[in-house]
Every structure is written in C-alpha cells, then in structure tokens.
Amino acid sequence: MLTKRQNLLETIKGGNPDRFVNQYEFMDIILESPVKLMCEPGTEFKNDWGITFRWPEGQLGQFPVHDEEHKVLKDITEWRKYVKAPVIDNSDEAWAAAVAHANSIDRNEQFVTAFVAPGVFEMCHHLMSMEDALMALCEEPEYMHELIDYLTEAELNYAKILIDRLHPDALFHHDDWGSQKSSFISPAMFEEFYLPAYKKIYGFYKANGVELIVHHSDSYAANLVPYMIEMGIDIWQGVMTTNNTPELIKKYGGQISFMGDIDSGVVDFPGWTPEHVEQEVERACKNCGKLYFIPNLTQGLNFSSFPGVYDSASEAIDKMSKKMF
User: Fold this and answer.
1) Phi and psi of 236, rounded to 5°?
2) What Pfam families does the record point to (predicted)?
3) Domains along the chain?
4) Fewer CB atoms inside 10 Å of the end CB: C or N, the chain?
5) Torsion of CA 38, 31, 147, 233, to 10 degrees
6) What predicted TM-score, i.e. pTM, was given to this entire model?
7) What is the pLDDT of residue 40?
C-alpha cells in the first residue's frame, strides 16, 4: 500500500495510485505561525496591516470591514501613505510551536505544508474593499502595479522566514479569484496584474525546496487555469462543479491537478445528511476519475462548517476507493 504522499504523487503524475487521495490527507498543514489570521465567531480583530476583520454570529466566516472608519487604503493614488508592511516576529520563541509541529511530521508519509493567506488579490481588496480594488485596476493601473509589487515583496519576505524556519516541502496558499460562476477580473487583466506576482512567489518557493504548490480558490476560475500552470501551481484546491471539472481534467491533466468538485455549499449546511454527502462524492469520483483529481469539499481547510460533514465525505471517498480501485 502506498503512503499518502506516494499515492498523491502517483495521482498527480498520471501513475498508478492504489486509491483516491482522500481530501487533505497528504498535507500536514502548519497553522502555528505567529501571524494571526482568524478571529472567533462573534468577535473582531485588527491584523498587523491594520485591516479589521469581523465574524458575525451565525455566519460561516469572517470578512474585512470597509466602512469609512475601518478602511485602510482610502485612496489608491496615495497607497504609500496608508499601506505599511508589518514586521514579522522572527524570534525562536514566536516560531517554537510551528517548528515543533514541522519536526514531528513523517515526511515519507505527508508533506510538511506551509500555509499562507490571504493572497495578493485578496490583500488588495482587504485593504480597500472589493469595489475600490476593481475600480482601481481599471482607473489607476500604474498605482495598482506599484501596490501589487509592494505586496509581492512582503509575501516574499514572509516566504523566506517560512522556508528558513519550517523547511516545507509543500505550500497551501489561499487567494480567491472568482465567484461561483465567473472570475472577478478578465483573464487579460489577471495576466497583466497578478500572473507576474505569482510567478515570483511560487517560483521562489520552488527554488527553495518546496515540491508541491496547492492553491485554494473555491470559485469559478477555469478561464485562469493556463495562468495557474504558468505560475507553477500543481494542484488547484476548491475547484467548484461550475468549472466542469471533468472537462478541465481532460484538457489540462498532466499539467495541473484538480482538488474539489464536492461543493461545500451543496453538502455542508444545517440539514445535511450522510446519504446526500455520499451521493455527491460518488458523482464526483465517477465523473472525474482516478488521475489528476482529488475528491474534496471545496472549503479551504480540512474541516466543515457544520460538524460531521468533512468526516462523512472522507468515509464516502474511502467507499469509492474500494469500488473503483
């Protein structure tokens, strides 16, 4: 029987996996970074960039607050006045828990996985709001190029710390690039503004021992897949059914693999049932096949919003492995 790591590599390289890769099993994700990313439900916090995040009770997650009081970047033409990259605590004490976690992982079994969120596109609209960011791309492209370059350098500085401290062999990186049915910006605009940034970022990781780039975007982004390949993404995690995953596998399999096709919004809700989860898992596995595909809830970490859904999906995937392998 192949290890989780071996089975993943066989799957994404078109080899001979002996079962489906079961969701996130191949990654042991290091979440103990001193950089705070999340608040608890019913609370809010301000991160080191000055962005205020709020998680209202009863909602599924947090989002930045963009009223006039809380918006960080109020004028893209004066971005240098408002946007200041934080100094990351690189002390041994701050990184002790993350290093201990990384050192505890059996690298023959799983990938030691660094975690980065938010990505460059999300940082743009977190700083100034989605509306302002999209308008700035159209109306003030020179200033947006400058801001994106600045954010890219900040990411690279963090990448140096992650690599030095954790020696990861995989990266799990978040940046949502679309809604359920379209990308937020056109492919041409994505190519101009964000492709160069990600070629630098992912190229740096690959040049420094990271074997596997897993990018999360639980959205429609089928029109951006050629750029994903060019920037070095190995696995697109979060691929929704609206992308026509089987067609993407047929067209791009061997260049990139696809992780998802079990839409969280379809199975992960208060009235969920194991039977419904199993139906969606069976559909995904039969439609997408054994190679270049990892069945997975589209949510961006190894849990579900409602207790039991993620585990139920994992059990259903194991059942499909016994049927199809």
Assistant:
1) -90, 110
2) URO-D
3) 4-324 (3.20.20.210)
4) N
5) -130
6) 0.97
7) 87
Segment 266-322, tens digit of pLDDT: 999 999 999 999 999 999 999 999 999 999 999 999 999 999 999 999 999 999 999
Sequence letter at residue 176: D
pLDDT at residue 58 above 90? no
Tell me, what amino acid is at 61? Answer: G
- Give me the amino acid identity at 147: L
Residue whose structure tokens are 């859904």 = 309
Contact criterion met (CB below 8 Å) for 176 and 130: no
Closest C-alpha to 145, from 203, 79, 201, 71: 79
Burial-class residue 218 by CB neighbours within 10 Å (0-12, 13-18, 19+): buried
Using one digit for the tens of pLDDT, what is the confidence trace for 1-52?
999 999 999 999 999 999 999 999 999 999 999 998 888 899 999 999 999 9
Phi, psi at 68, each rounded to 5°: -60, -35
Q: Strand pairing of 293-297 and 170-174?
A: unpaired
